[in-house]
Amino acid sequence: MKTIEATKCWYGHISIIRAECPDCEYPSFIINSMFVCCSLEATEDNEILLNIIDERRESEGEAKRGRLKKIIKDYLIKSQNNRCIYCDKLFGTIYLYGQKPRLVKIHIDHFVSWKYSGDSSENNLVASCDLCNQIKSSLYFETFQEAYVYIRLELQRKRVEIGGEEKKEKKKTNPKIASNYEYPMFVRNVSYSEEIKLKTYRLLNNIK
Predict the structure, then answer these.
(1) Does residue 147 contact residue 187 with C-beta atoms inside 8 Å?
(2) What pTM did the predictor assign?
């Protein structure tokens, strides 16, 4: 039986166990007795025993989740050109979800979930549509890039339109010049590798 030293980390009002994964040897969260990095179960069957030796507060939580000020909401929407930061659909327009028309509703998303961070500052808020916000839920991502690609893949799996009618125009772009592809403003402002850019381009244009 291998004993692994672990730390209980507090994010706002939520505690998560963190320890070094025996497989990849990187620090990882442990949720439902499983290392989230390698999906390794910390159980007796795998001869892994967790020993919590420390408790640490990573971030403070607010006593109560306050109402977002309208000026902040308006600023986020305007800075994103009235579009969802994840799927680029225009707020207030109609798209098809399966065979049913659906309105693009505005949701304000805490990039790092409020229940983990208690952070409602502008730096942790983005404007997203209700579907993307539902897909992301309280999942934790190290970078915006990870969240962006994950949500796009989920939208493709659900056969949801991405970027409204503009999607038809994007198909005309030559995949060989994907590095010059005109990405939405919020994507251009993030440092992406060419591999991620090409993967995202193919995803947006249904190119295999």
Answers:
(1) no
(2) 0.53
Residue 44 tokens read as: 């007796």
- The DSSP bridge partners found for residue 83 are 90
C-alpha triplet 205, 88, 105: angle, nearest 5°:
130
154: CB partners within 8 A, 6+ apart? 135
From the centroid of its chain, how far is CA 132?
A: 9
Q: Are residues 88 and 120 in the same domain?
A: yes
Residue 90 lies in a domain: yes
- For the segment 120-130, what is each residue's pLDDT rounded down to a tens digit? 888 889 999 99
pLDDT, residue 80, reads: 93
Give the sign of the dihedral formed by CA 79, CA 96, CA 103, CA 131.
negative
How large is the greatest C-alpha to C-alpha distance in the chain, in angstroms?
A: 58
For the chain, the domain total comes to 2
Q: Is residue 87 domain-shared with residue 53, that is, in the same domain?
A: no
140-193 per-position pLDDT tens digit: 787 888 899 999 999 888 888 776 444 433 444 333 333 333 444 434 444 445
